[in-house]
Amino acid sequence: MSLDPATIRRIASLARIRVEEHEVETLQTELNSILGWIEQLNEVNVDGVEPLTGGARMAMKMRDDVVTDGGYPEKVLANAPDRNGDFYAVPKVVE
Amino acid sequence: MTQLTDLTIVQARDGLREKDFSAVDLTLAHLNGIEALNPRLNAFITVSHSQALDQARAADKALAAGEQRALTGIPLAIKDLFCTAGVRTTAGSKILGPFVPPYESSVTANLLRDGAVFLGKTNLDEFAMGSSNMTSAYGPVENPWKRRQDANAVLVPGGSSGGSAAAVAARLAMGATGTDTGGSIRQPASFCGLVGVKPSYGRCSRWGVVAFASSLDHPGPFARTVRDGAILLGSMAGHDPKDSTSADMPVPDYEAACARGVKGLRIGVPLEYRMDGMPGEIEALWRQGLDWLRSAGAEIVDVSLPHTKYGLATYYIVAPAEASSNLARYDGVRFGLRHDGEDLRDLYERTRAEGFGPEVRRRIMIGTYVLSAGYYDAYYLRAQKIRALILKDFTDVFANVDALLTPTAPSAAFAQGENMDDPIKMYLNDVFTVPADLAGVPAISIPAGLDVNGLPLGLQVIGKVFDEETVFAVAAEVERAAGFTALPAIRAGG
Amino acid sequence: MGYAIEGTTGTWEVVVGLEVHAQVISNAKLFSGSATAFGAEPNSQVSFVDAAFPGMLPVINRECVRQAVRTGLGLNAHINVVSHFDRKNYFYADLPSGYQISQYQHPVVGAGVVEVQLSDGSTKQIGVTRLHLEQDAGKSLHDQHPTKSFIDLNRAGVALMEIVSEPDIRSPEEAGAYVRKLRSILRYLGTCDGNMEEGSMRADVNVSVRKHGEPYRTRCEIKNVNSVRFVMQAVEAEAQRQVEVWEAGGTVQQETRLFDSARGVTRPMRSKEDAHDYRYFPDPDLLPLVLDEAWIEELRLALPELPDTKQARFMRDYGLTAYDAGVLIAEKETAAFFETVAKGRDAKTAANWVTGDFFAALNRTGGSIENPPVSAQNLGKLLDLMADNTINGRIAKNVFEAMVETGKDPASIVDENGLRQVTDTSAIDDAVARIVAANQDKVAEYKSGKDKLFGFFVGQTMKAMAGKGNPALINEALKKALS
User: Which residue among B247, B466, C268, C453 is least enclosed by CB atoms within 10 Å?
Assistant: First the structure.
């Protein structure tokens, strides 16, 4: 599966990472090389195999419905690069 | 009298109790070492002088009152992937900016609960992605070990926990925390002549650890002896209700397990770990390790883990996929670096382009791709099925043996700049370590010998899930038999 | 025939599926311990987990799971003992982690059904495909600043149930009835307050059109419609729009649209990116959700009586029509009010008074059923006073208004105002005689065939008796006097 420049740009867009035009070719080479190397997995017969999703295989524990967190707006906002009063601020979005 | 910085944790514990020295003495000795050597080694990104001394003073108070917990007064280094309250945390990246966490990770909270002193935050590959510490936004780390005939070559400590490994090896800390996702504790341990412990998945909480690949991240300790490693793991481990993947199991006495011996144990030798092009000395060391165990009363058994060779490729689908999602929160809105943009999308794109290094970007893009529409089945789903097969290999084998012995890394530490031309070359460093991450089984690397250049080589013990005790027992035997006493050229007081 | 749009090229039917997002009633959020209460100061109900700080992890709230299961049971749906959580990945300012934890291929609840009643008296079953749990997003304010949008994460992480219907709906009326019924079920169960104005329940409306017998054509999604009325209007507006596009020879584009309630039309949403490649994958921070079958059964046994069952019981036990019963059971509290009034009394009378005078008073005073202008007990007592002929129906209405105004019980009002009905036949005969004598011309007209004038005589007699005459006795006396 070979990635073309359009695909590189689409992936970068999905990932929200700006890629300059001059970087596309290098990325193409690197990513294609990695994906090419990964192709070896196609040799494996996975018929009837259930996918594994993690090392922990226990039943998920559930929390009690009690308010134990939140209520510290100052702390939650303190690190914001752009803050306006009690809000995070971002460039205006038009919907 | 041994220098304070050459003591093991066990010796320091005894010395503190016997009042041979104080906790402040111990911490000062390490801070002096850091001051002398860190400018060169770059093992620490942040050194927390005053906090460390405050903690040491508190430790002395406790000791004076007759209270000594597992790690009272023991100075440790913390990989800068663990969020430490009030101390800047970078994850080795620019994108976190000046972020100071308002919370303490569960693992480091456990260490503090047990009285440890934190010297500072150690350098790492950016977001734990790497095997050499070369991708850090805070500069590379120098391995304190030097090649015998080539004192000029600057070697890598391995990665991603390169800073932690270098710090402990150079005697700038008595122990350190790391995380192991593809081998990031064990491989640097092997490169730096240390004990590196990757426990079972879920054994140590991930709460407060900057996430790289959620199903593969394993917090664990570095130490200079197996017993020290056991003490550290005993403190770090434990169920955490704030982490849904945390194992609800009691923490056994790992220190005691180190003394068990290996009589009657069956040790497996997986044939697939004998790879083409493996350096002769590593093969020889491996055989020697098996002899040691045989002499100590273990039975050596040939076994097969048929899907071993697919581990790396499997890892390089699953880890980037999870990372691409875990790193989406670094967007310049609520904390960290922000690069302004014309609109919201531009803000995201510029912030992330500026904040992430090339390896992180590569992996996020691979991850985004393998999860994207049309490719999920062919890549991610398939990789998770192969992962199930890799786990099944281990489970089947462990029905018949108690532990496995393998090499840790396919080479000794290489020089900075080597293996950088092709990402895949770097990935191959993890060929022996990755399967244990995928399966979530415990594994320890022990320094077992030196290569022809005088650089450390490690052997790896792999065990059954949640059976760290057997792994410690075998590791302790390998350590005893190996009698590894070599010291790195660059070290405190050296 | 059913709802249809007559076009130039033929008759079109509309196909509608609804995705309703209902906020779960719980104290804390789905995966964090922050509070969920509406109307708090911005960012005051936000934890580091909600704000997606580094190293934060989700832990599921048992109550949210319980509420989702109860809702599934209330929809007669299959409960999946094992379900999984997945990440839905996309970037937006109100989504701090860059992904929403949702359920993709393995939701907690499977197929169910909602029965709706239509105005022509027919009922229809609308299939429910599934119900799953997911996180709500925060809120963006775009109108507080000239160049910036402000983000409040209070709502981020609140539990939502997404309830997806089969595309079984075929008219605006059916769409409205479905949303109303669903809302009613959720309120009965106490799993969602159904407050669409406040946003605790929202509908995404999927609309397509086709000629009869055709396979499905392209559909458009109209997002975040926040009232039943707007749902119906949006269906109508969008169906019309699509028919026009097809008939003009064009093709309806699959897109996401918004309903502009002021103009009564739908328009495309501005943000058109990446056609939503959400890259779903199982959330590696969570384990599969495994439910205990005994627990599910306990929940089933403890469910309250639901609208359909209550309505059937009201029809059966109180002899009410489907319509009247339907009106009374729309809200659980109203049904309870009615049952208090109706206990030991004539059900139809009770129903008439509750749906008539009482509802009118409720609207007029802006009261609520929890804080009613007249208590159920007092209304019942009013009915008793009519039943034993203490007062007549006309007077009763006045007494009722006085009850609304003063809050007093009916007996006191009747006594204080001397409103007892007059049943003394000689008094009635006297009044009748006076009226007949004073209206000889009308008497003659009546006797010559103008039957309608009887009402005039009744009215005049009643007036002469200050409204307190027993109507039946007045009728009898008049008939005799006018024969």
Answer: C268
